[in-house]
Specification:
The protein has 257 residues and is an alpha/beta fold. It is 22% helix and 31% strand. It has a six-stranded antiparallel β-sheet. Strands 9-8-7-10-11 form a five-stranded parallel β-sheet, sandwiched between helices. The longest helix is centred in the C-terminal third of the chain and has 13 residues. It is globular. The chain starts with a strand and ends in a 6-residue tail after the last strand.
């Protein structure tokens, strides 16, 4: 158990019957980079039950925040969704992950492409000043089934724009592009469809993705990751890593239980 610390739940928000987030205390020695994930969980039948969760809060915040789906028969999420303020969760002391700015080559535009709870690491990264220092535009896309699943939409479009320290950079460089697949909405369709049709580029006034100008981070459903990765590679983009930075990076630690 020395690999974990116990964090006290400070706040729980149920976005929908399928989606919730929670905020908990952060151990003073817990260090992470924007975009990383940690193993978190609960003690179940005397043993730790853990899953990988991206940290949704930025490294400079004193608390930790996580975004989770609810799976009624999921070993962990069926229990985690019932946590309340004052409860305890386990947090691994060693965060990891591939969605790091250093794993990307220098470029002009930084794209964060997410579905569902895949938005979580990008909630950390859009509050990382270095992202704005390195790129001219930072575009975060979030595709969900229903409008109510667009978690943090109000925060991104309102609160973050007025942030005391980040507001000026965010207003100048951040673009938020939500889309919905099952309901009427201003933008409807999967991110791959919106890319293939050119709709997203027309909406944003940006040229299509290219290896010369664009760097991409992917986090979401396995289907989205596979489909989008194939499209990026077809453009001549190469996947990056800690050993060799590239045009795009993929986070495959996706919670579905």
């Amino acid at each position: 158990m020395s690999a974990f610390h116990e964090a006290e739940v400070l706040e729980v928000r149920h976005w929908t019957d399928r989606l919730f987030s929670f905020r908990c205390t952060r151990e003073p020695g817990f260090r992470f980079l924007a975009g990383q994930f940690a193993m978190i969980g609960l003690i179940v039948e005397g043993k730790p039950l853990l899953r990988a969760y991206s940290v949704a809060s930025p490294p400079w915040e004193e608390t930790l925040e996580f975004l989770s789906i609810k799976v009624q028969d999921g070993p962990l999420t069926s229990r985690l969704q019932n946590i309340q303020v004052g409860d305890t969760v386990l947090v691994n002391r060693k965060p990891v992950g591939t969605l790091l700015l250093d794993n990307l080559l220098p470029g002009k535009n930084l794209w964060f492409l997410s579905t569902g709870t895949g938005l979580a690491p990008f909630m950390s990264l859009i509050r990382e000043p270095e992202a704005y220092d390195r790129f001219e535009k930072v575009i975060v896309t979030h595709t969900v089934r229903d409008v109510e699943e667009l978690a943090y939409r109000e925060y991104i479009t309102q609160d973050l724009m007025q942030h005391e320290f980040l507001g000026e950079m965010v207003r100048e460089k951040l673009i938020y592009y939500p889309s919905v697949t099952r309901q009427e909405f201003q933008t409807r369709g999967r991110i791959t469809e919106l890319m293939d049709s050119g709709r997203i580029y027309a909406d944003l006034g940006l040229p299509p993705l290219s290896p010369e100008n664009d760097r991409v981070m992917l986090c979401g459903s396995p289907e989205m990751l596979a489909d989008t990765k194939a499209r990026l590679e077809a453009l001549g983009m190469k996947e990056g890593s800690a050993h060799e930075p590239g045009h795009f990076v993929v986070e495959r630690a996706f919670v579905d239980k």
